[in-house]
């Protein structure tokens, strides 16, 4: 059996995907480049050779997740007359990816202690807000409301209240989830 060699772009994508999983589970402080390397099936020095440091890898991951969110929103928006509901349908697809959105929460938390992570996290959040307005024509207030609900859903998904593998539902969970209609898969 012969092994297929990955291109540099494919290997980088594999490492970013592994880093998303690792950072989602352990956060910035609790994740090492060795954790990422193990998940990707490569050596730790290879991770450093590609990204330079854990810090640079984490910033790459936050940016990558933001870009994926924006692409999902673009894909969900019809060519003409996109509505916030169209983007909410796209967001449902993001919620189904267990490790994607929690990375943003870790990025927001790490932003408090690290200026560069903070600048990156703020830019990512701003880019998403701006894109929502551009795609839908929503007012700042409507876009902020949409983003706020998305953040709450992100928190609920991170706690496994909703998403691909939810935990047992308690009354407060059921009550809160019911306020979102169909956007909790």
From TrEMBL:
DNA-binding stretch(es), residue numbering of this chain: 32-51
Keywords, comma-separated and alphabetical: DNA-binding, Transcription, Transcription regulation
InterPro entries: Homeodomain-like_sf (IPR009057), HTH-type_TetR-like_transc_reg (IPR050109), HTH_TetR (IPR001647)
Superkingdom: Bacteria
Gene Ontology MF terms: DNA-binding transcription factor activity; transcription cis-regulatory region binding
Domain HTH tetR-type residue range list: 9-69
Record's protein name: Transcriptional regulator, TetR family
Gene3D superfamilies: Tetracycline Repressor, domain 2 (1.10.357.10)
Pfam family, any one: TetR_N
